[in-house]
Structures are given as C-alpha cells and as structure tokens.
Amino acid sequence: MEKELDLLTAAFRAWLDWGGEPSETTRLPPPPTPAHIIKLLGKVTLQRLEELREMLPFESLERVQADIAAIQQMHEERTEPALRAVGCNTKMLLQKVKEMESAVERLTDEQKQLLTALVLVEEQLSQTRLELQAARAGQKDVDSSMQALENKIKSMTDETALLPLVHKLLFGSSQDSTGEPLTAQLVPRKELEALLAGLEKKFLSDASLYPGPAMETHSAAVRAGIMKEVKSIVEQALKLYGADRVGLVDYALESAGGSVIHIRCTETLETKTALLSLFGFPLWYQSRSPRAVIQPEVHPGNCWPFKGSQGFVVIKLAVRIRPTAFTLEHIPRSISPSGSISSAPQDFSVYGLDDENQAEGVLLGQYTYNEEGDSIQMFEVQNKDAAVYKFTELRVNSNWGHPEYTCLYRFRVHGEPAM
C-alpha cells in the first residue's frame, strides 16, 4: 500500500513538472478507510505468508518449530528452579514470621507473669512494712511499760536497796555468778504438797497423844516445829534445784569442759523451720546439733533430734571419773506442744570408753526411761566393777512410739574424779 502511494505521489509530481494542471475532471481517489486498510493488510499478510511458505521448505518450518519448542523448554527449565527457590524462600519467610509472632506472644506472657510476680512482691513488702511498724509500736509499748514499772518501783522505796534485790531474785546476780534466778529455784507443787501432807499426818498422830488442856501447849510447840521443818525443807529444795536440780556434778556439761566427739552412724533430723526469710522465701534453716545433749537449756524443741528410734553419741567428759550414776532428762508431758512425749527415749544403755576411737566399750548399765515418771530420771551404774573413763557412749535403742525421729534433750554423767 505504501509503495502504491509512493508511486501515485511520484506520478503526480512528474505530471506537475511536465506542465499539467489539474482540471475539474481530474479527481484524486478517495482516502482509504480503516476497514479498507485492514482488509488490504490482511490480503498482504496472507500473500506474504503464502510467499514464505512457498519460499521455505517444510523441513525448515519443522526446524523452526523445534527450535521454538527447545527455546520454550529451556526457558521453562531455567524458570522452574527459580520459581521453586522463590516458593521455598516464601515458605521460610512465612515460617519465620509465625515464629516471630509466637516469640512475641511468649514475651507478652512472660511480661504478664513478671508483672504478676512484681505485684505479689509489692504486696508482701507492704505487709512486711506493716508488721515492722506493728513490731516497732509493740516495742515502744514494752519500753514505756518497763519505764513506768521502773518509775513505780523507784517511787515505792529506795532505789539502792530494792532494785538490786529484785534483779537478783528474778534474774540472778548481775555482778557475780553466785546468785541463782528465782525461776531456777522453784519447787514443784506436787512435791511440796506431798511434804506438807506428810507433816500433817505427823501432826495429827502427835496430837492424839495429848488429850485435854495439854493439847494447846503441845500444839504451839508442834506449830513451831512444823514451821521450822517446813523452812528447812524449802531451803533444802531451793538448794537442790539451784544445784542443777539433781545436786550432783555433771561431768558431761559442755560449759564445764565436756564435749560431743561423734555420733557414729546416727543421722540428724533436719528441721524445716526457717529462721531467716525474705518476702516469704526461706534463706536459712535452723540445724539442731548433738551439743544440745550436754547443754543446760531444756525447753520444747531445744533438743537433738535424730532419725528413727536408735542413735549413738560419744561424749568426752570434763575429767576422768569413775561413773556412779546417769541422769536422762526430757520435757514434761504438760508443756509438750502435742501433749505427747512419744519421741522420748525408752530403752538405752551406757558404755565406758578408754579412747574416742574405741568401737566397743565396757557396758555400765541398761536402763528404761519411764514416760509416766518425772521429767528428770536418775539411774545408778549397774556394773559395780567399773573403771575410770574419760569417754562415755550413750546408745538409744528405742523410743516411746514416734515413727520418724527421737528427741534427746539432756544427758548427765555423775561420778568420782580420779585422783
């Protein structure tokens, strides 16, 4: 079509150059319409395709198609790995995104837990502050009460005369170690009632011998005698209880020079009462030592607890002695928190040792502690041929029924020092 237009244009220009003029009869062909152009292009394309088919052989067309197929296959081979890699990377990215979302959720949960724990700690801290304030207030009340009591005592009598006496009676002498506290000199009520009952019987028996008017004279004399005897009994009781409540030297006492050497295979029971805690969390637990057996403080819980019903303790005495008696002490049932003393030793035996490493000593006696008897029970040495020893071994063979542990409060060793 372009060639035809070019030829038409060239012919028209040549005609003009030759001197021709356009006339009314000479008309140019109308411009082609789009439909005419499309129709003309279709014809030209079909003609060119036919010409190409005639010019190219069939084998060349097959080769071209084969090359096109090869190019398409190559393109697919190159594209598929890339698409697969892109797919894998996409999956990995999605997995990482999910993991990051999970991590964010976990962090959120941990933050919530930390905030909850922080709130609890703040509540415990506020509670501790309140308890501390209450303790300080109680301490102030005690201080004020003590001050008021001291002022009252001062106002009653001369300070230089009464205060030292009250202090000595209640707490012992503050200047030397001769004064004994009043709490250490108390006489048990049962024992005092028994003594008074005996005196009453004696008074009644004596009164029956003096009928009539002689009764009054004799009664005055009897009253004076009774008062004197009661005073003597009370003084003896005070002296007895002031002398370690048994009146005999304890050669196993730690403060006098005794010591616990070892406990052989006995396993100490660990208590779970926290002595020191912070915000309700225990930091340090109290541990009971076998040394409690040879110490004078005897009150509930201040003992040596060991697992089971059998235990051993080897004690080094203050000096070499010939043993004459042993004293085993346990708390009374009346002051036991549980109302029972089933953890008290029942059957036990005592051995004399010449050396702390001696495996088997000389048996000095086998005894039984009576749970229904007094809290302090003394046992004489059964082996009358006992020699002089520096060490003694206490073997507890059973207790009064506690299935888990046995409590050993105090063990005393009495005897005659070797010259």
Q: Which descriptor suits the 3D outline?
A: elongated
Strand fraction equals: 15-25%
Distance from first to last alpha carbon: 153 Å
Order of helices and strands: HHHHHHEEEEEEEEEEE
Number of strands: 11
Oligomerization state of this entry? Answer: single chain
Radius of gyration: 58 Å
Give a written overview of the molecule:
This protein has 419 residues and is α+β, with helices and mostly antiparallel strands. Helix content is 47%, strand content 18%. The chain contains 6 helices and 11 strands. The chain has helices spanning 2-17, 34-55, 58-156, 159-171, 189-207, 214-242; strands at 259-262, 274-278, 281-285, 304-307, 311-329, 347-353, 362-368, 376-380, 389-396, 405-408, 410-417. Strands 1, 5, 6, 7, 8, 9 and 11 form a 7-stranded antiparallel beta sheet that branches. A hairpin with a 2-residue loop joins strand 2 and strand 3 (281-285).
Lay out the secondary structure.
Layout: H1 2-17, H2 34-55, H3 58-156, H4 159-171, H5 189-207, H6 214-242, E1 259-262, E2 274-278, E3 281-285, E4 304-307, E5 311-329, E6 347-353, E7 362-368, E8 376-380, E9 389-396, E10 405-408, E11 410-417
Antiparallel strand pairs: 1-5, 2-3, 4-10, 5-8, 5-9, 5-11, 6-7, 6-9
